[in-house]
């Protein structure tokens, strides 16, 4: 039984306001996506990597990242869809096996740490999926959007912000993704598909340093954190 890593790296990166693909943006002398792939390549618990990218980024990612680093675990490079959900679906469908575990991670989260892969894998026997998340620390208000007015202040202790990786039993997540596609169910994260169909999702506290690079400010923060951890180019 294999453990797969599916790296979703097909986002447009529009909010980054860069002429280059977000995945190829240099952070401390190394493409953003390389940091992400490295952790799964180095993990003894990951057997294969599926990389999902934009069609227009494929050649550059192959030349500037994959061939340059000579990654051994990348077995499939898949073209993504118009949404993250479509991209993950495309990645899941190239996995022929139904028995095993898949670890789905955002390519734009370069500060993933070894324990973020290993701890959820150690919990998965008790759940259909295990996700990383952080408890909300800001006050949260429910807003009536048509008028942009506050409806109420909610108890923030009940709310967590979701991160990746998210780890799933392969048979379940493939089956539910296929159902969601057929029934035109749209979600913003993978665990929501399990929730839609009654799957049991465990939660593990993540890290505030596990940032998703979305804006130019995020790149600056990522550089600070990467230099702190002495990542090698």
Could you say what the CATH architecture is? Alpha-Beta Complex
- Tell me the series of helices and strands, N- to C-terminal: EEEHEHEHEHEEEEHHEH
Distance between the termini: 33 Å
* CATH homology superfamily name: Spore Coat Polysaccharide Biosynthesis Protein SpsA, Chain A
**Globular, elongated, flat, extended or rod-shaped: what is the shape?**
globular
Oligomeric state of this protein: single chain
Question: Total number of β-strand segments?
Answer: 11
Low-confidence stretches: none
Cα-atom Rg, whole angstroms? 18 Å
Can you tell me the CATH topology? Spore Coat Polysaccharide Biosynthesis Protein SpsA, Chain A
Please describe the biggest sheet, giving its number of strands, its sense, and whether it closes into a barrel. 7 strands, mixed
In CATH's first tier, which class applies? Alpha Beta
Fold and architecture overview:
With 233 residues, the protein is of the alpha/beta class. The protein has a single domain, classed as Spore Coat Polysaccharide Biosynthesis Protein SpsA, Chain A, CATH 3.90.550.10. The protein is 33% helix and 27% strand. The strands form three sheets. The chain has a seven-stranded mixed β-sheet, sandwiched between helices. Strands 2-3 form a two-stranded antiparallel sheet.
Question: Which characteristics define this entry?
Answer:
233 residues, alpha/beta, Spore Coat Polysaccharide Biosynthesis Protein SpsA, Chain A, seven-stranded mixed beta sheet, two-stranded antiparallel ribbon, 33% helix, 27% strand
């Amino acid at each position: 039984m294999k453990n797969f890593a599916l790296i979703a790296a097909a986002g447009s990166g529009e909010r980054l306001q860069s002429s280059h693909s977000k995945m190829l943006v240099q952070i401390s002398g190394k493409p953003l996506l390389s940091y992400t792939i490295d952790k799964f390549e180095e993990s003894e618990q990951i057997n294969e990597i599926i990389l999902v990218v934009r069609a227009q980024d494929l050649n550059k990612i192959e030349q500037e990242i994959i061939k340059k680093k000579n990654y051994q675990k990348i077995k499939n490079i898949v073209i993504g869809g118009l949404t993250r959900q479509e991209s993950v679906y495309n990645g899941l469908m190239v996995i022929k096996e139904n028995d095993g575990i898949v670890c789905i991670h955002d390519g734009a989260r370069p500060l993933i740490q070894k324990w973020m892969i290993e701890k959820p894998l150690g919990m998965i026997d008790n759940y259909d999926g295990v996700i990383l998340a952080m408890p909300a620390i800001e006050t949260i208000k429910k807003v009536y959007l048509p008028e942009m007015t506050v409806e109420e202040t909610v108890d923030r202790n009940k709310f967590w912000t979701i991160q990746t990786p998210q780890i799933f039993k392969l048979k379940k997540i493939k089956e539910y993704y296929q159902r969601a596609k057929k029934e035109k169910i749209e979600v913003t994260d993978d665990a929501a598909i399990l929730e839609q169909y009654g799957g049991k999702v465990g939660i593990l506290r993540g890290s505030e340093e596990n940032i998703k690079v979305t804006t130019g400010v995020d790149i600056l923060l990522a550089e600070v954190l990467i230099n702190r951890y002495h990542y090698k180019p």
